[in-house]
Amino acid sequence: MSNSSDKVIITCAVTGSAHVPSMSEYLPLTPQDIKAQALEAAEAGAAILHLHARNPEDGRPTPAPEVFQQFVPAIAAETDAVINISTGGSTRMTLDERLAYARVVKPEMCSLNMGSMNFSLHPIAAKMSSWRFDWEKKYVEDMEDLIFRNTFRDIKNILTEFRDYGTRFEFECYDVGHLYSLAYFVDIGLIKPPFFIQSVLGILGGIGSDPENLSVMRSTADRLFGRQNYQFSVLGAGRHQMSLVTMGAILGGNVRVGLEDSVYLSRGVKAKTNAEQVRKIRRILEDLSFSIATPAEARQILGLKGMDNVSI
C-alpha cells in the first residue's frame, strides 16, 4: 500500500474542535461557512474532507447530528470528495456523543484516535490578549487537566460496530505507542489492510514535531505492519504543518492540512481559507513531481465502500 505511483492523497481538516474562534477570524464556525470552505478545499485538490461541527451561535464544538445535517448533505451533493466524520469530537464529549452523527450516516470513513491522551493547547491561553466568546478562555485553559478518552475497550467497540457499517478509518496516531495499539487490533483481526495511518506530530501530550520523530513513526509502522499493508499520512500541528507534511510525502506518505491543524499559511500570515493551505501543499508536491490523488483514486487506494453506500 505504499505510494509507488507517486499519488498523494490530500486530506483537509476543515475546522476541528481544538482551535477556538479567537485564534483566527477565518476559522469556519457556521454550517454555511464549513460547507463553503470544504467545497473550496475539495476544488483545490483535497480528496478527503475531515469534518467536525460547531455551534453556529458561538463556535463551540458540538456533536449534535442536527448541526452536522446542516452542512454534510450539502457538501455531499456538490463534491465527490470522501467525507470523513470525526469520532474525536472533543474532551468534553462522551463517547456516545462523539459517535452520534457517524452512527446516523455510516460514512465511508471516520477518524479514530488510537488511545487516551492529555491532548492540550493550554499554553496558548497565556498568549491571548482578548477572547471573542466568553467560553473560550476556560475551554483552552482546562485542557491542562482533561484527558481525551479512547480506551482499548472503547476502540474495540467502535471497530466492531462500524465494521458492520463498512466504514473504514483514519487511524490518528499521536505517538509511537498508538502504533503499537493499532498493531494489537490488527493482530486480533479487528483491523484489516488496507488501513490508513494519520501520524500526528506537534500536539502537546503526543510526540513532538522533530523531523526525526516522523522517521521513527514511519519506520515503526513499517516494522509492525509491512509497508504494503497500510497507507501513511502526516499531520503537522501549527507552524510545523507544511514542512512535516512535505517530508511525509517524500517518505512515501500522504498529507493532511486544514485550519483544524494550523490557522497559518506561513510565518505570521493566517490562512484565510482551508483551500489556501490545500493549494499551497499541492503546489509544493507537484513541484516535487508528485501527482495528487483524485477522490476516486483515494477510494481505490483505501478500499472505501463508496458514497452510494452512505446514508447521507
From TrEMBL:
Give the keywords, sorted: Metal-binding, Transferase, Zinc
Cofactor(s) demanded: Zn(2+)
Q: Does the keyword Metal-binding apply?
A: yes
Which Pfam family, giving just one, matches this sequence?
BKACE
Q: Which InterPro entries would you find in this protein's record?
A: Aldolase_TIM (IPR013785), BKACE (IPR008567)
Superkingdom is Bacteria
PANTHER family, sorted: 3-KETO-5-AMINOHEXANOATE CLEAVAGE ENZYME, 3-KETO-5-AMINOHEXANOATE CLEAVAGE ENZYME-RELATED
Q: By what name is this protein known?
A: 3-keto-5-aminohexanoate cleavage protein
Query: Which species?
Result: Paraburkholderia phenoliruptrix
